[in-house]
Design brief:
The protein is an alpha/beta fold. Helix content is 28%, strand content 16%. It folds into two domains: 100 residues, no CATH class; 137 residues, Rossmann fold (3-Layer(aba) Sandwich). A six-stranded mixed beta sheet has the order 6-5-7-8-10-9. Strands 3-2-1-4 form a four-stranded parallel beta sheet. Helix 3 runs parallel beside helix 9 and helix 7 runs parallel beside helix 10.
Length: 292
């Protein structure tokens, strides 16, 4: 984790090599463990072999690491991707995939000549994030890209510290066209008070037509940045390893800007920085239209 936070990928992969060598082969893809705790690749060669890539983590993780499918396919005989059903419409036709199968938790595909969990591909291929652009998803925008701003402030229950209390965001909404990127009704002054569509491919079409997305660390951040939309990511003080440390940009996504808590729990300072950045953006891009 320390090596990845520092962007020292060679050191991170060396650590991973040592961990992999010390693992008990019998614990590979252990069905007694939750999927997100399993390891899959055992270090075997994958060149000119039929490869199965399993997606055992979150939707955002799959979107982030889907960039590695094309370079994997350049070296493998074939690539089958077993992906979360919600992502299948988005991943159709993506470079590097010969076969796309919805992941059925109760009946996963049998092993291939070489199996991976999708987040293991960076290690196996020895490719740092800047060496591989985000996956080129084929998404048609629901509207022409414009001045509307997408907003996502709540994530999964497993890490409540990533979420921002909605009332803190209300000052960002006034005088601007704000689109909620969350399901369900919201008290914030947005142009879609009933929330965004439930289907992920419909949400992707909505995101593709936005001028800016402001979001916490959740799937929406990966979706927006993978689609190349300007994405402002709001991070808690102890942010996930992938966002590294001490920087406002991300090697994973050229269109992303990071706003970090200066102290644990200090969302007001983050929102103040976002508000100032919005004013600067509007000064250079011209005024935005008010909602309604």
């Amino acid at each position: 984790m320390a090596a990845m936070r520092a962007g020292d990928w060679d050191r991170a992969w060396a650590v991973n090599d040592a961990v992999l060598a010390a693992r008990d082969p019998d614990s590979r893809d252990d069905p007694r463990l939750p999927y997100h705790l399993r390891w899959v690749w055992d270090g075997r060669p994958f060149e000119q072999r039929d490869v199965l890539v399993r997606c055992y983590h979150g939707l955002g993780d799959t979107l982030q690491f889907a960039r590695y499918l094309a370079p994997l396919r350049a070296r493998a005989a074939s690539v089958t991707l077993e992906a979360q059903p919600a992502l299948v419409p988005l991943l159709q036709g993506l470079a590097g995939i010969d076969r796309l199968v919805p992941f059925a938790v109760a009946a996963p595909l049998p092993p291939a000549a070489c199996d991976f969990e999708i987040m293991e591909l960076a290690h196996a291929l020895r490719l740092p994030p800047r060496a591989v652009p985000p996956a080129a998803l084929r998404v048609e925008a629901a509207t022409e890209p414009g001045d509307a701003i997408g907003l996502c402030w709540t994530g999964g229950d497993w890490d409540a510290e990533r979420s921002v209390p909605a009332p803190l965001l209300e000052p960002l909404c006034h005088g601007r066209r704000i689109v909620s990127l969350q399901p369900g009704a919201t008290p914030l002054p947005v142009i879609n008070p009933n929330g965004c569509p439930g289907a992920l491919h419909e949400t992707a079409a909505l995101v593709a037509g936005l001028g800016l997305v402001i979001t916490i660390d959740t799937m929406i951040a990966h979706l927006a940045a993978t689609l190349g939309r300007p994405t402002w990511l709001l991070l808690k003080r102890d942010a996930d390893w992938r966002w590294m440390e001490g920087r406002e940009d991300s090697p994973w996504y050229p269109s992303m800007r990071l706003f970090r808590q200066p102290r644990p729990g200090d969302w007001p300072s983050v929102i103040a920085s976002v508000a100032a950045a919005l004013r600067e953006r509007e000064a250079s891009h011209g005024p935005v239209r008010a909602a309604g």
